[in-house]
Amino acid sequence: MSYYLNTWHLQQACRAINSGGVIAYPTEAVWGLGCHPADERAIERVLALKQRPWQKGLVVVAASLSQLDDWLLPLSSQDEAQVRASWPGPVSWVLPCRDEVSPLLRGTHSSLAVRISDHPLVSALCQQVGPLVSTSANPAGAEPARTALKVRQYFADDLDYLLPGVLGGRRQPSEIRTLDGTRLR
């Protein structure tokens, strides 16, 4: 599968995120909605678009574990090794987060779901703007979008940018794990 990286489109997506916008972008298995994880108004827009209760929390995706240093508490060497063994890739980990992480991101939990993506566009985007909120592009209860057309059908003109690209070829959205070995999805 070819991943053509168009720098103009990447710059437009970065501009939208850095301006407080919400974008749609292809991920490993489905289209995602994203924004800057420190921008509470943008996060509120994502939650409203998805009709998702804030209490559930969201996933934050990054290009490297070091990009998550401001969000997460330090891990033991054993836990870090376990997490790194699955990254980059389609596994989101629920990890202990700093107290100052917004409840809009972590929900009612003292942890945050995070992932280091192996999708070239997601990785390039995170290298440019830092970590991103990453949640499936669909209203609650609807099937996640697997095409840009479906994203447009769901959200019409409510997005600030749609980053063109192809999905990563995986059939299922990312798996969610906890450090004790529990798989949440």
Percent range for helical residues? 25-40%
Along the chain, the helix and strand elements come as HEEHEHEHEHEHEE
Radius of gyration: 15 Å
Secondary structure tally, helices: 6
Structure class: alpha/beta
Which term fits the overall shape?
globular
**Strand line-up in the sheet with most strands:** 7-1-2-6-3-5-4-8
Task: Describe the largest sheet.
Answer: 8 strands, mixed
Strand content: 15-25%
Strand and helix map with partners:
Layout: H1 7-18, E1 23-26, E2 31-34, H2 40-50, E3 59-62, H3 77-84, E4 91-96, H4 103-106, E5 111-116, H5 120-129, E6 132-136, H6 148-155, E7 161-162, E8 175-178
Parallel strand pairs: 1-7, 3-5, 4-8
Antiparallel strand pairs: 1-2, 2-6, 3-6, 4-5
Helix pairs in contact: 1-5
Give a brief outline of the structure.
With 185 residues, this protein is α/β, with parallel strands linked by helices. It is 29% helix and 19% strand.
